[in-house]
């Protein structure tokens, strides 16, 4: 039962929505030879509790902080999965501090276009420019979480500025010794 599942700061929450934007993100942020992408969004828990009380920070139209249930608990169209990384307390503190400092920032919609363009011949130019971190002001979901983890000395196998929900998902799935699956992909009802 998800309502009794305890979430802890640092838990990584992935979602899969059925919107056109969600489909586009899944389509344009995976490599051609990869299996279809499972998720299109990611956030991080910053305060402990059940799905009704834990606090989730995620980049939506703005970076928001709310309970997982408030956003995903009433919909069967949104699927959620949660991974628990093995973290030290200083890492948790750093991740939470960074994520919460982003609350209120506007979403970086232009970064979605850059992710799509990375699948073209312009990839090297875009990656070089983007990896400089010049787009910090406007976070997207994966950037927010990957950057929080990078501040704690962790990564998801790619530069924080270039991370996508698919990259992060693959990283967590491939490392069950470091990321424990605590809620499988499905509705939070």
Strand order of the largest sheet: 4-3-2-1-5-6
Q: Secondary-structure element order, as H and E?
A: EHEEEHEHHHHHE
Looking at the overall shape, the CATH architecture is Alpha-Beta Complex
CATH top level label:
Alpha Beta
Portion of residues in beta strands equals 15-25%
Low-confidence stretches: none
What does this structure look like?
The model has no long low-confidence stretch (mean pLDDT 83). β2 and β3 form a beta hairpin. The chain has helices at residues 20-28, 68-72, 89-101, 109-117, 123-130, 141-151, 165-173; strands at residues 12-16, 41-47, 55-59, 63-66, 79-85, 179-186. The chain contains 7 helices and 6 strands, in the order βαβββαβαααααβ.
Key terms:
189 residues; alpha+beta; endopeptidase fold (from Nostoc punctiforme); 7 helices; globular
Which SSEs are present, and which pair or pack?
Layout (H helix, E strand, L loop, with lengths): L11 E5 L3 H9 L12 E7 L7 E5 L3 E4 L1 H5 L6 E7 L3 H13 L7 H9 L5 H8 L10 H11 L13 H9 L5 E8 L3
Antiparallel strand pairs: 1-2, 1-5, 2-3, 3-4, 5-6
């Amino acid at each position: 039962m998800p309502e009794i599942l305890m979430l802890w700061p640092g838990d990584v929450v992935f979602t899969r929505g059925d919107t056109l934007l969600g489909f586009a993100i899944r389509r344009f942020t995976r490599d051609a030879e990869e299996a279809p992408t499972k998720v299109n969004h990611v956030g991080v828990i910053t305060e402990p509790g059940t799905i009704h009380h834990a606090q989730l920070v995620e980049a939506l139209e703005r970076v928001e902080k709310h309970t997982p249930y408030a956003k995903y608990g009433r919909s069967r169209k949104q699927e959620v999965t949660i991974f628990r990384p093995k973290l030290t307390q200083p890492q948790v503190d750093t991740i939470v501090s960074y994520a919460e400092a982003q609350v209120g920032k506007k979403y970086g919609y232009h970064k979605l276009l850059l992710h799509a363009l990375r699948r073209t011949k312009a990839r090297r130019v875009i990656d070089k420019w983007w990896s400089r971190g010049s787009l910090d002001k406007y976070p997207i979901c994966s950037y927010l979480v990957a950057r929080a983890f990078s501040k704690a000395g962790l990564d998801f196998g790619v530069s924080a500025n270039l991370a996508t929900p698919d990259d992060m998902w693959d990283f967590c799935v491939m490392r069950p010794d470091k990321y424990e699956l605590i809620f499988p992909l499905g509705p939070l009802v």
